Amino acid sequence: MKVIKTELEYKKALTRLLEIFDATPNTPEGEEFELLSVLVEHYENEHNAISEPDPIAYLEYIMEKKGLKKADLVKLGIFSSRPRASEVFSRKRSLTKGQINRIHTGLKIPYRFLFSKDEDVKWLVKNEPVLEKKSKGSGPSSLKVTKISKSKRRGLETS
Fold first, then answer.
1. Is the residue at 1 inside a domain?
2. What is the value of pTM for the model shown?
């Protein structure tokens, strides 16, 4: 048995894995199954790596699901203007941390889908005010801006 290097070898290995799938452990076929599984997993990790999530693509997906247009995001106060929204969606500009916070609050999208790196989330937790509900109802009047306390910040940084 050898390292899988080509797509053809990968397909042959998958076919063989299916043939010996029910092999009894600690038998020659059971040992072959274990070794082949490791080789297939290694090949898949090398050739089918999952790319970093794209916050804009995810935002577009959510907008489509909710029936929203770029102009709606301006009306919601997420972007300051339609041209600014267009620059972000055409990837000429990155999302600002303020826009990310407003998207998170307004569209209920978790931060992890809006940042591409964990360091950015930690920066937001340390430095940005966060919008929170202050009263029942909806719209800008029902939100207040608060700073995250040091004790909450420590808990978020370790999680």
1. no
2. 0.47
Q: Is residue 2 part of a domain?
A: no
- Residue 144: its H or E element: strand 143-146
Structure tokens at 125: 């937790």
Are 116 and 55 contacting, i.e. CB atoms less than 8 angstroms apart? Answer: yes
| pLDDT band, very low/low/confident/very high, at 133 (cuts 50, 70, 90) | very low
Q: Specify burial of residue 88 (Cβ count, 10 A radius: 0-12, 13-18, 19+).
A: buried
Same domain, 14 and 37: yes
115, burial (CB in 10 Å: exposed 0-12, middle 13-18, buried 19+): buried
Q: Which domain holds residue 25?
A: 7-47
| 122 or 38, greater pLDDT | 38
Are 139 and 64 found together in one domain? yes
Phi, psi of 130 (to 5 degrees): -120, 135
- Helices 55-66, 97-107: axis angle to 10 degrees equals 30
Residue 113 C-alpha from the chain's centroid: 4
Same-domain status, 23 and 64 = no
